[in-house]
Amino acid sequence: MLLLTPWFIRTMQKMQMGQIIRDDGPERHLSKAGTPSMGGVLIISSIMISTLLWADLSNIYIWVSLLIVGGYCATGIQDDLLKIRKKNSKGLPGKYKLFSQTFFVAAAAFIIYKYGAWDTHLSFPFFKNLRPDLGSYYLLFAAFVVVGASNAVNLTDGLDGLATGPFVITASVYALFCYLAGHATLARYLQIPSVPGAGELAIFCGAMAGAGLGFLWFNTYPAEIFMGDSGSLAMGGALGCVAVLSKQEIILAIAGGVFVMEALSVMAQVGYFKLTGGRRIFRMAPIHHHFELKGWPEPKVIVRFWIISILLGLLAVSTLKLR
Ligand code: 57M
Fold first, then answer.
1. pTM of the model
2. pLDDT tens, residue by residue, 35-68
3. Which ligand 1 atom is the nearest neighbour of the CA of 223?
4. How many domains does the chain have?
5. Which of 24, 60, 167, 274 would be 116's cystine partner, CB 3.0–4.6 Å?
6. What is the pLDDT of residues 261-309, one digit of tens each?
7. What's the CA dihedral at 196, 201, 206, 207 to 10 degrees?
8. Domain for residue 10, yes or no?
9. Range of the domain at 307
């Protein structure tokens, strides 16, 4: 990542593949016009290559994760190219994106059902004996987790490094959870679901954290490159995917709490806006724009959100022993 990104930035600049900035957002974003985008292609390639090199390729969970990350990245690439080439186009229609995201979850679920262990139970932090069986509804729930995570990371990606930092932290938390889920003795000791084979996903999570860190070097304020939807959709989808596969779906709402907060701020703003005929809760949603418009400098919003993310990551890890 560290070696390839400068080359990628120069190439994107030469090809004039830069970001179009909407003129209805915070004013200081206008100076970001032309920043090379689609860094997600590098992040996802790096995750895929590291995983193919170091993971056990007879493990079904590895292939399912690669399917999700690759499929979501391809969807994001179409969106990015439409936006960049057609200039000011809104990209892929939302319905198409949602269809594509759901399609890849359904394909992944089919593969697990046929070749792996399809467990429809849910597990909760703090209440470790509570393991309700969702039956066939589990598929809907899994789709909600993966598609929701993908869209939440996409919404968060609106300030330099704002999504990348929490992504690295959440992926690191899941590296630990996947390793523990795959280790029968430790899983039993910690009273978390034991998922034979999930330990291999720790390599996939490590690749995510490493690729994210390498990208953050260039995406941190003032960003030299943005990840684009090719990054945000795939990185969110990858987090949702490891959460479902390691049977630690609820933990994602804690470890990835910054993404949840951003998505909830949009839902609350849009809901309130519609109910009241035009009134707002926040100056602008997603919530990072609210703080920008309050006058916080961009790095202050970003680093404070990172701090929240680190705290939430630690809280997620502490649930292993809290019961
Ligand atoms: C995409 N994309 C960034 C970059 C990045 C429903 C509504 C809330 C949807 C939401 C939306 O479209 N969100 C998803 C957010 C964009 O970044 C590009 O997109 C990729 C991620 N998908 O990788 O390629 C801009 O964000 C800035 N940026 C950085 N640094 C980075 O590292 O500064 C991105 C990465 C970039 C750059 O300026 O151009 C984005 O924000 O567009 N819509 C919104 O977020 C809009 N909110 C809104 O309409 N709110 C209303 C509603 C909810 C009632 C309200 O509150 O009144 C805002 N976004 C913008 N302008 N730009 C508002 C208007």
1. 0.96
2. 999 999 999 999 999 999 999 999 999 999 999 9
3. 32
4. 1
5. 60
6. 999 999 999 999 999 999 999 999 999 999 999 999 999 999 999 999 9
7. 160
8. no
9. 41-86+134-318
- In sequence order, the 6+-apart residues with CB closer than 8 A to the CB of 91 are 79, 80, 82, 83, 229
CB of 283 sitting under 6 A from ligand 1: no
In a domain, 105, yes or no: no
33 within domain boundaries: no
Using one digit for the tens of pLDDT, what is the confidence trace for 163-194? Answer: 999 999 999 999 999 999 999 999 999 999 99
Does 204 map to a domain?
yes
% pLDDT > 90, the chain: 85
Q: Ligand 1: which of 80, 266, 280 to mutate, most ligand atoms within 8 Å of CB?
A: 266
For residue 223, how many other CB atoms are within 10 A of its CB?
21
Which residues does 274 contact at the CB level (< 8 Å), separation at least 6?
none
The best mutation among 29, 79, 156 to test binding of ligand 1, ranked by most ligand atoms within 8 Å of the C-beta, falls on 29
Phi, psi of 184 (to 5 degrees): -55, -45
Question: For residue 250, what is the DSSP state?
Answer: T
CA distance 115 to 76: 28
